[in-house]
Design a protein that fits this description.
heterodimer, A: alpha/beta, TIM Barrel, 2 domains, 3-stranded antiparallel sheet, 15 helices, globular, B: TIM Barrel, 8-stranded parallel sheet, 14 helices, binds zinc ion, zinc (chain A), cytoplasm (chain A), Queuine_tRNA-ribosyltrfase (chain A)
Amino acid sequence: MTQPARLDQLPPEMLDFALLKTTGTLAARLGRLSLPGRSNILTPAFLGNTSRGVLPHISPDNFRKLVELEGVYMALEDFVEKHPQKTPPILQFDVPDPLRRFVALPKDTLVVLGARRQPPIATPMSNTNAEVTLSTSVGFRSISSEYYTAAVRKLQPDIVVGLADIPYGQESIGLKRKDKMSDRTESWLRDLIAKRASIEQGDPRFSIFAPILPIDRDLQSWYLEHLVDDMVDQISGVAIYDAYLLDDLPDELHALPRLSCHMPASPQELLRQISLGMDLFTIPFISSATDAGISLDFTFPAPQSAESDSTPRRSLGVDMWLAEHAVAVTPLTEGCACYACTQHHRAYIQHLLSAKEMLGWLLLQLHNHAVLSSFFAGVRASIAAGTFDADVAAFEAFYEPALPAKTGQGPRVRGYQFQSADHGHAARKNPKAFRSLDELAKLKAMHGQQPNRKPQMQDVIDDEALVGLVQMEGVDPAVQLESLKVEDADGDDKA
Amino acid sequence: MAPVPMPSALTFELLAKCSVTKARAATLHLPHGPVPLPIFMPVATQASLKGLTPDQLADTGCRLCLNNTYHLGLKPGQATLEAVGGAHKLQAWPHNILTADSTGSFQMVSLLKLAQVTEEGVRFLSPHDGTPMLLTPEHSISLQNTIGSDIIMQLDDVIATTSPDHARMLEAMQRSVRWLDRCIDAHAHPERQNLFCIIQGGLDLELRRQCTAEMVARDTPGIAIGGLSGGEAKDAYCRVVDTCTGLLPEKKPRYVMGVGYPEDLVVSVALGADMFDCVWPTRTARFGNAITAHGVLNLRNATYATDFRAIEPGCQCPCCRPADAKPPGLGLTRAYIYHVTAKETAGAHLLTMHNVHYQLDLMRRARDAILQDRYPAFVREFFAALYAGDRGKYPEWAVVALRGVGVDLLRE
Ligand SMILES: [Zn+2]
Ligand SMILES: [Zn+2]
């Protein structure tokens, strides 16, 4: 690459989206998203779904070396926990392109910034006319539209998803509330557009994706009309919160790229959304599979099956916790070109999971992302070839309809990572620490010292590895470490 | 009776000796490539270093890392190791491996009251199901032969250096010598795996001398000083290392097990030790601690939330190296580490990389200084940076130990 250093300081032109192939209004389509200085994205495609600015388990150096992703999604709520008492650190980082620099993202990776994580966690407080509620690592916080626009102005992402007033976690939403949703969303979008208009010539500008709310067209008709009448030239894409309402999208917005904020729970759901004309995705099930120790194992189109209809459908993933992999010196998926499959084998990954070594999750995460990259390449080829609908049918016939259930224990899940139940994934939390006498006895029986008490001993003992050694199912590793109670060499137990 | 000298699968190439202290610079040629001495060896207890890929570990400059025999014996177990073809294949690590079980957990387990040491071996309860297990010198070597590590360690009888029981200490020392003979007899691959003996004897210098003499007579390819880092006083530790290195042959690598902190490494090198290992740098990364020339920074402290300097400015690790450097680094800030540490596993990966790089780089710089015969100056610079020039804060044990090898930190 030639000196890209100054490229991001040039005034970026507006995002360009070229539709390369369409086959009707509610049909799969091919496109190309391009922005000077960033990699082109051929759609349908997916964005890396970050947590606190990092693709879970993948440090920025590995992201550069081992991951093929042209774009990522980030959530402002992952960066503003000091608000409102203090100015969040990221907003004090006084360099060009501060968000990208802060998280060490490559220059050519497209950054999409939204307010909420994907999927968002339901908040106990409702949004108001003035404020949206966020969930940060230290609790729930509210920010104003003004704050949001100022923050995105400062952070300089490539694309900003406008604030949407969506009452997450609410079972049923009244008509009056739905009216408010579209009013607020419109007003907040206007704020964002106004903010961008105030950016001086030559300063970095962001592109705007307008939220399309998960309510019937009638209920957001004013908002949609205004979008078409006043704002269509100001927005570069739409963020769609209910893929099954794509039908309601005004014709005037059809040429815009569509980001799905409707989290798919399975590859089949992804395909359904693609078949309705969705272009861009974040896919939380990739990281959930990784954390569950599941190696995704599907391709699109599905392999040609010579077998009869009576053969059982193939699983979408392999549970790497199972002991049957312990001596398998084969890759996760035969023929997969990812780092995990070319450098390592199932036996090692099974060992890492069983020993609770973090590397297991990294390797699965790399592989699972590679599986989705190939999946999308297959999807695009299939749409180009005009065989998409048939390929989807074959896929659904070939694979089981849902990802396999998790059996092993994943990494510690923190509050801000809890997933809400209304996105196809059951809520997962750390199982309540279950410490039977038997388990405690096991722990105590195996240790002769007290690493928690005596600092010098603490530093020479790999207590994490000890936890990996003991079989304690259903107990949070952090709890295990805490309860790792071992006697001192000289019997000096000052517990 | 010492058996016939065993073949060696290493070459120790001594390059320079400090003209003042006992420090040495060498290259140790091992079956999976040369490694520079002195060296710090990161501890990948369970065949993985805290989330780093083998490539990331190699990028820190590491060419020799540790695995724990005891841990690998239980998980994935000897049968799996056999099926996979050893630890190099298991973890896809093309460089050298040393397997030990004296440091870390085995030391811990062997010290527990429930583990019983007999002449036969160490009897303990399986952490899996509580069933009694017996680890003998023969079994330990067989396991390490299966693991295929480049350096294997004898099974030794370790008791805490702080134990007041002299008779037990003597017994442990003598038993370690007998076990060494059994290990030598059991060793199936001396032509491709180097067995190191482990000198025991607690803090009793006379016992250490006796043990050293017995073990040197066995002529193993390398020699370890064991049983330390168990919480003994630092001055006592230094006396043991100094005494042992004084009796060791010049042309063999000397490994002090379970050490340590940067100042321990710098002083121990001056006392004539070449190799070190410790879980501390990687373990402490989990708690947000970054090792720097100016001391350890706890990056979980809120003061770092808006500190946009590198973890250690000037550090050449992938995290700290600026994005516009050649080759480019990540240019990460302390604020970013604060942002992810203890919240994302990647935060621990990053600090682990930095800390391992720090320890390896410290030994690289020590080696350069020895090669240029300026190790005493290096030691002075090191302590001046660590204590911000305040000599009053220099630890007494380090001052005394270094004075013993001709370097007075308190005088120019
Ligand atoms: Zn793969
Ligand atoms: Zn560094």
